[in-house]
Amino acid sequence: MKVIFLGTAASKPTKDRGLSSIAIQYKSDVVLFDCGENAQRQMISLIKPSKISSIFLTHFHGDHILGIPGLLMTMSLNERKDPLSIYGPEKTVYFIKNLLRGGYFGISFDVHIKELKDKDVVDFEDFYIQAFETKHGIPSLGYIFKEKDRRGSFIENKAKELGIKGKMFSELERKGEIIINGKKIKLEDVTGPKKIGRSIVYTGDTLPLDIPFRGCDLLIHDGTFLTDEDRNGTFHSTVKEACEAALRIEAKKLVLTHISQRYTSDEIQKEALKYFENAIVAEDFTVIEL
Amino acid sequence: MKVIFLGTAASKPTKDRGLSSIAIQYKSDVVLFDCGENAQRQMISLIKPSKISSIFLTHFHGDHILGIPGLLMTMSLNERKDPLSIYGPEKTVYFIKNLLRGGYFGISFDVHIKELKDKDVVDFEDFYIQAFETKHGIPSLGYIFKEKDRRGSFIENKAKELGIKGKMFSELERKGEIIINGKKIKLEDVTGPKKIGRSIVYTGDTLPLDIPFRGCDLLIHDGTFLTDEDRNGTFHSTVKEACEAALRIEAKKLVLTHISQRYTSDEIQKEALKYFENAIVAEDFTVIEL
């Protein structure tokens, strides 16, 4: 499982940073979080557009969404037939439909657009994605990417002792329990500890807020500004606030993104390490393996 | 006067080529021709967005227009107040309005959108831009950028001989003629040969066509394909056809752009030189001084 930062700038692109987009690659599936202008070019030789099954949008400022029509046009030129799902906050249907009426794009596949609210969950086979409301002055969402927990491995000796063999394993797996010689055996009795699925929280652009998830492996947080003075009333977080959020929800790792062009990465990194030791600054093409 | 190629790819961006956009910088004014996705980033440190007075669009395929909303958002973040004009073929108003309804962009200035037809002329102070219909299967235009011709310099001896002095020069300039001692003197009588303005023709994407301008300093022509087989029924030109167009209209120089990613620049260059010696292949950030 890989997290690939395709764009890490705030509001405007710079020479070094493209506009917001993050890909999570899980097995052969790719889910895109935000799709700023030029995302399709940033992903060249990293991600095949055909692998992207869905796009989750945090909000409709241009720097988070303007890569969508171009990406869909390229998918069509590649003769994609698989449907694509686009999720986002209130007004997502209206905005996406307008964007796709902005030219002759000849989209060759179905686009399913769905608006999400706080706590809504989108289920995938091996993981789910849950939305939570953020604070950005317009309808906006953050997302929890959670790999589903899986049962522990079979403890073979114990299973054998209780008389489980052959097809009984799959029956036990399916039903959760099995009766052997009149005795009920539960799946938990013969398997080790549950394997906790990996988890990523992405805030998108936001003021600090209560993130409804604890202990994630990775928190990707708005780290636009160094000071409240620079924030100047906008709906973004300071690096310190992002670190405080990581501490509060006991995140194992923090990646700061959406970096204002007024700072160098070093300045952001130095500030972050004052508060949270496992923090790094996202650069375009940073890859985090989980 | 400079022509700056901001994007030279066909349809999809590649590692080396961004999407179609060409800037003509004339004195302190910049006119953009097409504005593909990521144009705003391609122009960093080359062109200040505030200098762009107008954008001329050849047609509404995504690779020629999807940089517009992001560029306008960035202009707004830069607190632009000057109006911006956008020109293009039939349906330009509909498409641009939809694009600008695709998110919360907060445009801070007036956007004047105008649809042009074959032969329409947009007048600027020192130059004009004339549209001509092209052949791309959808409404599409090419553009002639023509610096206005200027009168020749005063031939001082001749003017003095005829008694012209002081404020008479500006009167003659203003009226085109002046009467001295009962004798009519025309401006042409005392000035050298007319200074012919520089001229650029940009076809946008098109099949070969009759370009309604002869002797331009620079022809920028669709050179997407090497063979008719590769063209495969699409509305583009081969390199050979572009060269034939340059010969036909007696262009002084030819720049091929909108290069299919299946070819190297060397292949295109070699093919072009078979037919027209003053041909070059555009790369991103190629600058032509005229």
Provide a descriptive summary of the structure in words.
The structure is a homodimer of 290-residue chains. The first copy, chain A, has 290 residues and is an alpha/beta fold. Chain A has 2 domains: 2-149 and 200-289, Ribonuclease Z/Hydroxyacylglutathione hydrolase-like (Metallo-beta-lactamase, Chain A, 4-Layer Sandwich); 156-189, no CATH class. The first copy, chain A, contains 9 helices and 16 strands. Chain A has helices at residues 39-42, 62-65, 68-77, 92-100, 156-161, 168-175, 228-231, 239-248, 265-275; strands spanning 2-7, 21-26, 29-33, 52-56, 84-88, 111-115, 121-123, 127-133, 141-147, 177-180, 183-186, 199-202, 218-222, 254-257, 279-281, 287-289. Chain A has a 7-stranded mixed sheet with strand order 6-5-4-3-2-1-16, with helices on one face. In chain A, a hairpin with a 3-residue loop joins strand 7 and strand 8 (127-133). In chain A, helix 8 (239-248) packs parallel to helix 9. The longest helix of chain A is centred in the C-terminal third of the chain and has 11 residues, at 265-275. The first copy, chain A, is globular, with a radius of gyration of 22 Å. The model of chain A has no long low-confidence stretch (mean pLDDT 97). The A-B interface holds A 11-15, 18-19, 37-38, 40-41, 44-45, 59-63, 65-67, 69-70, 73-74, 77, 94-96, 98-99, 101-105, 138 and B 11-15, 18-19, 37-38, 40-41, 44-45, 59-63, 65-67, 69-70, 73-74, 77, 94-96, 98-99, 101-105, 138.
